[in-house]
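input
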Amino acid sequence: MADPARAARLAQRIRVVVAEALRKSVKDDRAEAITVTDARVTSDLQHATVYYTVFGDSAAQEGAREVLDAKKGVLRREVGRNLTIRLTPTLEFVADEVPVNASHVEDLLRQAHARDAEVAKLAEGAHHAGDADPYRKPEAHEDGSGAEHESEFDDVDIDAE
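output
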């Protein structure tokens, strides 16, 4: 097994090499919309997963997937030429869903902010349903002692037997 730091460095190098190879070696217009976002390498350095995003609609995403599947051998050859390891890892391309998920989360946050603004607008003229101070306070005794409660044994004489 390889050192995890070495695997991380190799993954970042693979990410750069694949991005450059898509720009230079792949002669397909559909490859221009592909952005390589990340790469991960297994601990034995035999398999690399490359994550990508595509700018455009679903047709552009489908075209990018077809280009990557068709040019997988060319991209692996470029990776093998630019890396100084004994075996060239196999490449797997996975569409990165992080931007889609991030935009969905941003939409949810916008909706929550709008609802909070509506609630704040409704609360502007609102009044308490009960007293302004709903907590119980100890009642003061007639003698002004301020004792919180009376005991049932207050009138019992302890010395009397």
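quick obs: The two ends are 89 Å apart (CA to CA).
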